[in-house]
Design a protein that fits this description.
60s Ribosomal Protein L30, Chain: A, six-stranded mixed beta sheet, 6 strands, globular
């Protein structure tokens, strides 16, 4: 198995012993992204909509580095700290996908997330 690490400065650097994404074959596995602004390195959790948009933009930057778009995403995992926020998160998330080609996914409420953010999203993409 050949493993290629995907890295971009247009998304936040990892905050632990992992990479932004790993490509093997035609599959790209993107680590969970939180609302860290890649330019400043600062966490942006002022409001849920802005936080979710930044998470999605970080995913978009990593996908681009892997020569992919959201159309290549086949699976996402959404982790949220409060299921009451699902509607707002889902609304922003939905603007990044076409309904007829949206990926499979699960959404799970968890006790805590890194840096106590409200949302973390990971993705798996396939390169055509």
């Amino acid at each position: 198995m050949k493993k290629e690490v995907i890295k971009t400065d247009k998304a936040p650097a990892p905050i632990g012993p992992y990479n932004q994404a790993v490509k093997t074959g035609n599959m790209v596995f993107i680590s969970g992204q939180i609302a860290i602004n890649p330019s400043s390195g600062e966490l942006e959790t002022g409001d849920l909509e802005t936080e979710t948009k930044l998470v999605m933009e970080n995913l978009k930057a990593i996908l681009a580095e892997a020569n992919c778009t959201f159309e290549n995403v086949i699976k996402t995992s959404i982790f949220i700290s409060d299921m009451n926020n699902f509607g707002k998160i889902n609304e922003i998330y939905g603007t990044y996908f076409r309904a007829d080609t949206a990926p499979a996914r699960e959404t799970v409420e968890v006790a805590n997330l890194p840096k106590f953010v409200n949302v973390e999203i990971s993705a798996i993409a396939v390169i055509d």
